[in-house]
Amino acid sequence: MDDRHDQEEIYSQRIKAGKRTYFFDVKATRGQDYYLTITESKRRQNGDDSVSYEKHKIFLYKEDFLKFVDALQDTVDYVREELLTPEEVAELDRPRDFDDRDQPRNGSDQPRRELDRPAFDPNRADDNY
Fold this sequence. Notes:
Blueprint: E1 8-17, E2 20-28, E3 34-45, E4 51-61, H1 65-83, H2 86-93
Antiparallel strand pairs: 1-2, 2-3, 3-4
């Protein structure tokens, strides 16, 4: 069996986006070293009317968190500032009626709001981001 499937899951967050769902999972190795898996799951309708899911996964290790976040933010900023029209940026910034953060936290009946969590800081010593 693949060892990656045996690792302890510490935290999970799901984002629904049309036919796609993104999962952000924090896991620990047996030696208590933490890493993040980012999974894209896309629903596919097969020709025989059955449904299957195509999955793609990225493993991101803690020593690369800051580089990854910086590169992602730089890329998003470039798209917003150089490629999108002001109208498209305004649409991206428009408040949404529904957000997965309004869903209960793992093991809790209280909603998970953005303001409940501090901003992501990969240099923090704790895991509460």
